[in-house]
C-alpha cells in the first residue's frame, strides 16, 4: 500500500526538466510533432483528445477538418490514446488524463522550440552554415591583410563591408526561416508548409 501511495505522490508532482534524449524521442515522430504544434498553437490550458485527433488527421491527409472520415479520425485517436500521448506524458511534455481524454501542456513544452532546428532534404544545419561563412570571412580577411591579388584591387573597407553584409543577409534569412518553422504558430505545423 505504501508503494502505491509513493507512486501517486511522485506522479502528482510537477514535471521537472525533460532530458534532451526524451525530447528528441518525442519529436522523432511526426504525429507527436503535430500534437506539440497544436498544443503550443492553442491558447488553452487543456485540449480534448478528440479535437487533437481531428486536427492531426486533417493535417496528415491534407484536408480540412470538416472533410475527415470516421476511420481517419479513429486511426489517429487510437494511436494518440494508446501510444503517443502516454509517451509524451512519460517524458513530461504533457499531462495526459486518459480517463477524461484531456491533454494539458507542461512547462517543458516551452523548451521544444530549442530543438526544432529542422533540416529537410539536402539542406545543411545553420550552425554548419555559419561555421563555413566564418571560415570564408577569415580567409578573405587574411588575404586582404596580406595584400594578395586580386584583393588589392578594392579598398580594405569594401571587403570588410562585404563580410558584414554576408553575415547580415545570412542572419535575416535565418530569422525568416526559423520564424516559418516555429512550432505553435497559427498556420500549419512545420513539415506541411
Q: Would you mind describing this structure in some detail?
A:
It is built from 7 helices and 3 strands, in the order αααβααββαα. It has helices at residues 2-12, 20-27, 30-41, 49-61, 70-91, 126-145, 156-180; strands at residues 47-48, 94-97, 102-105. The protein has a 3-stranded antiparallel sheet. The relative contact order is 0.13. It has 193 residues and is mainly alpha-helical.
Q: Which tags fit this structure?
A:
193 residues, 3 strands, DUF7344, transmembrane helix, elongated, Arc Repressor Mutant, subunit A, 5% strand, transmembrane, 7 helices, three-stranded antiparallel β-sheet, 2 domains, membrane, mainly alpha
Quick recap:
This protein has helices spanning 2-12, 20-27, 30-41, 49-61, 70-91, 126-145, 156-180, and strands at residues 47-48, 94-97, 102-105.
Topology (elements, then pairings):
Elements: H1 2-12, H2 20-27, H3 30-41, E1 47-48, H4 49-61, H5 70-91, E2 94-97, E3 102-105, H6 126-145, H7 156-180
Antiparallel strand pairs: 1-3, 2-3
CATH class of the largest domain: Mainly Alpha
Q: Under CATH, the topology of the largest domain is which? A: Arc Repressor Mutant, subunit A
Radius of gyration: 24 Å
Q: Quaternary state, please?
A: single chain
The number of helical segments is 7
Rounded to the nearest angstrom, the distance between the terminal CA atoms is: 52 Å
| Mean pLDDT across all amino acids | 81
- Overall shape: it is elongated
Topology, number of strands:
3
- Helical amount among residues, as a percent range? 55-70%
